[in-house]
Amino acid sequence: MIVSFGAQKARAPGLVENAKHLREAHARFARIRWLLGQPRRLSLSLQAGLSDAFNACMLARDARFALQPRSQGVFHFCKMDIDWDDLRLFLDVARLGGLSAATGTTRLSAATLGRRVTALEKQIGEPLFVRQQTGYRLTPIGEELLRRAEDVEAAMQSLTRWREGNLPDRIVRVSAGPWTSAFVSAHIGEIWTVDDGIRVELVTTTDRVDIGRRAADIGIRGERPTEQWLAGRQSGKVAHAIYSGRRMINGIAAGLFVGVTGEAANIASARWLQAHHGDRIAVRGNNTHSVRELVAAGAGLSIFPCFVGDSDPRLVRVAQPIPELETDQWIVTHHEERHAPPVRKVADRITALMRAHQPLFRGETSIR
Question: Using an 8 Å Cβ cutoff, are 69 and 28 in contact?
Answer without folding.
Answer: no
